[in-house]
Amino acid sequence: MEETGERPGHYFLPSHSNPSEPLAIKRIGGSRLTPIIPLPAFAVVCIVEFLIGFIIVTYGISTSGIVARVTPNSMLGRVTSAQRFVIYGSVPLGALAGGALATWIGNGNALFFAVACIFLGVVSLFLSPLRSQRTLPSEWEVL
């Protein structure tokens, strides 16, 4: 660390070029989206974190009712635990893949790629025929 001039916690201390802005915020705000979003980087990060949390809660609420209706009571615990294992087990794998991608193509490009993937997921849901379906097919329901 001494050879490069870095010190512990230097990402959260003021940067040399702008003493009022921490280096971490400068690196986050220095992405390709900066010219598009005319907000300070901290505000953008707060808004994105809020939206991600909102989407996670909405997903949990919408899927819990469907899973309960299509799964027999005797299998509900196993199905729920398998679903959580896959969802929460993919988080460290995604973090590892994101870190490898950021090492390979750079932090800004990796974040831009992540945003593009999220956007494509949302677009595919809006173009899906499931969006207009309001009721569950009767053959799927467990009596």
From TrEMBL:
SUPFAM superfamilies: MFS general substrate transporter. The keyword Ribosomal protein does not apply. Keywords: Membrane, Transmembrane, Transmembrane helix. The chain crosses the membrane at residues 41-64, 85-105, 111-130. The keyword Transmembrane helix applies. This is Major facilitator superfamily (MFS) profile domain-containing protein.
